[in-house]
Specification:
By secondary structure, the protein is mainly α. It has 20 helices and 3 strands.
Length: 517
């Protein structure tokens, strides 16, 4: 869609760090919403961002976390389930004529391709129509596609609905990450974003253990257990859908898109609720910002902003996503295949091993997340990427020497992914907070799509062939490529990462619609 016909806003401040946020005037009590000019494209002065950032942690914030963050549990459940049932689907009597390599290769690549396409499609709509509408729609797409996956009767049907399931999940990445960062106070934004993205691995643990039960032929027939596994994802999604109805629209999105009165009313109601909960009045906001409202932002302005005005940040985002996407989408998709191919682990038991590395993945963001807000983004992002890459090189060396068993390989992966998971989660945090408000969802969508396409589509296809060969050297090569990309991304972060910790989003990147005093 073409850019708005309103006059172009001043360009963002030069890199590497933008200047202070706009509007140093002190807000009075609950802030203000002074507007001038007709219609939805008025000029508005508001303290809404400062009012949101100075809120203490409350039950309202927990509602946001539960309503939005739990979707990553679904994603983890999806990816892990497919990886663990690959062996069962390829067995005679499964009810589906498909090979293990097709499940971990073609189906995995189509899931990621769908996620990339969904991120771009829904990312644009998220910036245009709001966060709330889209995070309801994307979850509905996921639910429908997952239910139809459970009904697969032929390989083409399975492939089609894996793509559409990914399409819904990809849209979730753009809508959810932008909403979370705009609703969570700056003091907690880093750790909350990391833990929420890391909750993917709670789903992975659930998917691993669930697959052990569902693939047990003493309990369920071969052609039924894997179908019920997908059905469980639908049930969980419906529960999340009910909770999510209560999550509000982002007030930051509202005041930029001509809904300043709604934004002011929403923030005021939240402030009253928190004051009752804490039993004390909130401090006054410390600044205001003046915005020239816009109904929409065109693709041309978004692209120019991201790549011309913030080239270093664009390089950073791309590097982080390529590194983590290859590591996770290429290697963890095939973890079950490695266990069965090289260590003769029964397909029905791979879930136990994956549950262990999934636990390591979740513990990383849980224990390291706070450091991203205290020690700082640059040090933590670069170190988690580089450390995980170096440890993966060591794991590849030990695997090549034949020094690892199924248990010790799992232990090595658990340690590698403890650091890698925190780094990978920080990629979503980074692209969500370092670009202007008006481009946020599209920036998340773009970097997720490009980075994931590079590592997440080609990765599973390549890795499936490497592990299927049964040659140790082929698998070692895949490990080394993933490790090298993680280390390279860590070095880029050491140079280009932005010191965004405990800072307002409007300070990190000035909104395109801001009006200078």
């Amino acid at each position: 869609m073409a850019a708005s016909s309103t006059p172009a806003a001043p360009p963002p401040p030069p890199e590497p760090e933008p200047g202070p946020g706009q509007g140093s005037g002190q807000g009075s009590g609950q802030g203000s919403g002074r507007a001038s000019g007709p219609g939805a494209e008025a000029t508005v002065t508001t303290a809404v961002p400062a009012r949101l950032d100075r809120l203490p942690w409350s039950r309202w914030h927990w509602m946001i976390v539960i309503g939005l963050g739990t979707v990553w549990i679904l994603d983890g459940l999806e990816v892990t389930t497919v990886g663990n049932i690959a062996g069962r689907l390829s067995e005679e009597g499964s009810g589906l004529a498909i090979s293990s390599a097709q499940v971990t290769g073609i189906a995995a690549a189509l899931y990621v391709a769908g996620a990339c396409a969904g991120a771009l499609f829904f990312g644009r709509l998220t910036d245009k129509f709001g966060r709330k509408k889209l995070f309801m729609v994307t979850l509905a797409v996921y639910l429908g596609a997952t239910a139809l996956t459970a009904l697969s009767f032929d390989a083409w049907w399975f492939f089609l609905f894996r793509f559409l399931t990914g399409f819904g999940i990809g849209g979730e990445y753009a809508a959810i990450n932008s909403a979370i960062d705009e609703l969570i106070p700056s003091k907690y934004r880093g750790r909350v974003d990391l833990i929420i993205n890391g909750s993917y691995w709670l789903g992975a643990i659930g998917g691993s253990l669930l697959s052990v039960v569902m693939l047990n032929t003493d309990i369920f027939p071969k052609d039924l257990g894997w179908r019920l596994t997908f059905a469980m994802g639908v049930v969980l999604g419906l529960v999340i859908l009910l909770v999510r109805r209560h999550v509000p629209e982002s007030p930051r999105w509202q005041f930029i898109h001509g809904r300043s009165e709604e934004a002011e009313a929403l923030v005021s109601s939240v402030e009253r609720e928190i004051e009752r909960e804490k039993g004390a009045p909130l401090p006054p906001p410390d600044r205001e910002i003046t915005i020239h409202q816009r109904k929409s932002i065109g693709f041309g302005l978004i692209a120019k902003t991201v790549f011309r005005d913030y080239p270093k940040r664009a390089t950073l985002g791309l590097s982080l996503f390529v590194g983590q996407a290859f590591l996770y989408n290429a290697i963890t998709f095939g973890f079950g295949a490695i266990l069965t191919k090289f260590y003769d682990v029964p397909s029905g038991s791979t879930g136990y091993y994956f549950a262990v590395i999934a636990a390591g993945n979740f513990l990383g963001p849980l224990f390291l997340g706070k450091l991203f807000d205290t020690v700082g983004r640059r040090i933590m992002i670069s170190s988690t990427y580089i450390v995980s890459g170096v440890l993966l090189f060591v794991t590849a060396w030990l695997f090549d020497r034949g020094s690892l068993s199924a248990a010790t390989l799992t232990a090595c992966w658990c340690v590698v992914l403890f650091f890698a998971s925190a780094g990978a989660s920080s990629a979503y945090l980074t692209v969500s907070e370092i670009f202007p408000m008006e481009t946020r969802a599209m920036a998340i969508a773009f970097f997720y799509a490009i980075g994931t396409a590079a590592g997440g589509i080609s990765g599973p296809l390549i890795f499936a062939k490497l592990t299927e060969s049964g040659v140790v050297g082929d698998t070692v090569l895949a490990f080394q490529i993933g490790a090298g990309l993680m280390c390279a991304a860590g070095l880029v972060a050491a140079v280009f990462a932005v010191k965004a910790e405990r800072r307002s989003l409007e300070d990190i990147a000035e909104p395109l619609s801001s009006v200078k005093a």
